[in-house]
């Protein structure tokens, strides 16, 4: 078995980061087997190197190695590209075509950006992984293939599974062994090494002196976030090599080639939500409605107290907390105005029978019902119609009709008497 350092030299991998070394070590260990491998990591970290290592160190090294970018193939033709098609299977299929799985028989196929596969193609791929069988588009003949599959993705697979964009069973079939490549910002000691290698390559390519970095430029490169990882670092090295006349590059110069991605300071993210946080407009509306309902119930209670005691001073004293809750700091002025409004209604004196009705705890809307007598004729007719229909539906049973209308049975009885039903 070749050493990690020998593999780095053979495949042009630069860096001494422990996480990188561990990833290469895992690739070396799984190479002699036929188990499927999933390579994960951000875009630009060099995931394409791992399947090459696995293929070259396996017993399939004399077979074909095919790399397929699943994200670059249109959804309508990806099944044909992977599994082939028969002549006449669809418009434009003028001849029979072999797919990648048929061509790569006894070899290795690398599925890059596997997280972009359509769900229908994922079902076909799952069958290949389980028993090595596939069917060409437009054919009914089952064919066998003996390929090793190495897949790679920069997508968070668990999020994709949760959003039903990737099949969970396929994920576990692909990730028998998962190899994760660290982002460049976690390999700070390798950043300058990589930059020097790229600068040397471009100097040789464009036949010019190699650029050199000052200490402040190196420090700036090491502290930069590198969202594009190694690919972004390579692009910066090429730009500086071609555009700068002075071959000694300081921090101010290199800063011009680094996009401003904002502060690199860590941000505190609050995972738990407080009771006052809302994740959607619907929750905000629910909160407003619940607050309105609570205020309405409090107002009903205050109104009932006024009707019973007839003294606003006693009501204010006994219900100080309710008044404070509803009216806030302006409670005195608003409450007195509310009392005056009630007096304007000139409520009739209650008889003993009325007091009995008011004292019933289940009759929550007695006061509102007294006011309803002053409503328009159209509302009166509408209420009468609702009561009639409810009684008809329940065969004249007042208890069931009252429950449907949301009022007490006693209130319904009074209304029946009132409307001569």
List key phrases describing it:
two-stranded antiparallel ribbon, 421 residues, 9% strand, alpha/beta, single chain, five-stranded parallel beta sheet, 21 helices
Detailed description of the structure:
It is a single chain. A five-stranded parallel sheet has the order 2-5-8-1-9, covered by helices on one side. A two-stranded antiparallel ribbon has the order 3-4. Strands 6-7 form a two-stranded antiparallel sheet. The chain is of the alpha/beta class and 421 residues long. Residues 342-350 and 364-377 have low confidence and may be disordered. The chain is built from 21 helices and eleven strands.
The major sheet is characterized as: 5 strands, parallel
Distance between the termini: 97 Å
Identify the overall geometry: elongated
Question: How many extended strands?
Answer: 11
Task: Provide the residue-averaged pLDDT.
Answer: 82
Percent of sequence in beta strands: 5-15%
Low-confidence stretches: 342-350, 364-377
Estimated helix fraction: 40-55%
What is the structural class? alpha/beta
Oligomerization state: single chain
Query: What's the tally of helices?
Result: 21
Physical arrangement of strands within the biggest beta sheet: 2-5-8-1-9
Radius of gyration: 38 Å
Short structural description:
With 421 residues, the protein is an alpha/beta fold. Helix content is 53%, strand content 9%.
Per-chain topology:
Blueprint: H1 4-11, H2 18-30, E1 37-40, H3 49-56, E2 65-69, H4 78-83, E3 84-85, E4 97-98, H5 100-103, E5 108-112, H6 119-131, E6 133-135, E7 142-144, E8 148-153, H7 157-162, H8 168-174, E9 177-180, H9 188-206, E10 212-213, H10 215-223, H11 229-243, E11 248-249, H12 251-255, H13 281-309, H14 312-318, H15 320-327, H16 331-344, H17 352-359, H18 366-372, H19 377-393, H20 398-405, H21 409-419
Parallel strand pairs: 1-8, 1-9, 2-5, 5-8, 10-11
Antiparallel strand pairs: 3-4, 6-7
């Amino acid at each position: 078995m070749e050493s990690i350092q020998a593999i780095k030299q053979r495949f042009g991998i630069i860096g001494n980061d422990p996480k990188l070394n561990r990833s290469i070590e895992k690739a070396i260990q799984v190479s002699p087997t036929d188990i499927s491998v999933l390579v994960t990591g951000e875009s630009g970290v060099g995931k394409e190197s791992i399947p090459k290592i696995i293929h070259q160190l396996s017993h399939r090294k004399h077979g074909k190695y095919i790399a397929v970018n699943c994200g670059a193939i249109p959804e309508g033709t990806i099944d044909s590209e992977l599994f082939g098609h028969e002549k006449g299977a669809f418009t434009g299929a003028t001849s029979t075509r072999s797919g990648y799985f048929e061509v790569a028989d006894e070899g290795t196929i690398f599925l890059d950006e596997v997280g972009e596969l359509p769900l229908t193609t994922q079902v076909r791929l799952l069958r290949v992984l389980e028993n090595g069988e596939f069917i060409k588009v437009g054919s009914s003949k089952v064919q066998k293939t003996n390929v090793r599959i190495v897949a790679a993705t920069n997508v968070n697979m668990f999020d994709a599974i949760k959003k039903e964009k990737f099949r969970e069973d396929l994920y576990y079939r692909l990730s028998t062994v998962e190899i994760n490549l660290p982002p460049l910002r976690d390999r700070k000691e390798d950043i300058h090494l990589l930059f020097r290698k790229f600068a040397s390559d471009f100097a040789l390519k464009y036949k010019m002196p190699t650029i050199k970095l000052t200490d402040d430029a190196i420090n700036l490169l090491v502290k930069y976030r590198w969202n594009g990882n190694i690919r972004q670092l390579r692009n910066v090295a090429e730009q500086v090599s071609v555009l700068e006349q002075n071959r000694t590059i300081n921090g101010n110069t290199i800063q011009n080639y680094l996009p401003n991605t904002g502060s690199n300071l860590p941000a505190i993210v609050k995972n738990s939500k407080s009771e006052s946080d809302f994740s959607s407009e619907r929750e905000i509306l629910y909160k407003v409605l619940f607050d309105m309902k609570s205020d309405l119930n409090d107002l009903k209670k205050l109104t009932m107290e006024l009707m019973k005691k007839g003294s606003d001073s006693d009501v204010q004293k006994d219900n100080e907390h309710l008044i404070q809750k509803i009216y806030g700091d302006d409670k005195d002025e608003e409450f007195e105005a509310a009392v005056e409004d009630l007096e304007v209604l000139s409520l009739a004196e209650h008889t003993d029978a009325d007091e009995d009705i008011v004292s019933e705890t289940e009759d929550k809307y007695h006061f509102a019902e007294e006011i309803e007598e002053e409503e328009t004729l159209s509302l009166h007719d509408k209420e009468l119609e609702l009561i009639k229909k409810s009684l008809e539906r329940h065969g004249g049973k007042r208890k069931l009709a009252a429950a449907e209308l949301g009022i007490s049975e006693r209130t319904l009885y009074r209304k029946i008497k009132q409307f001569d039903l």
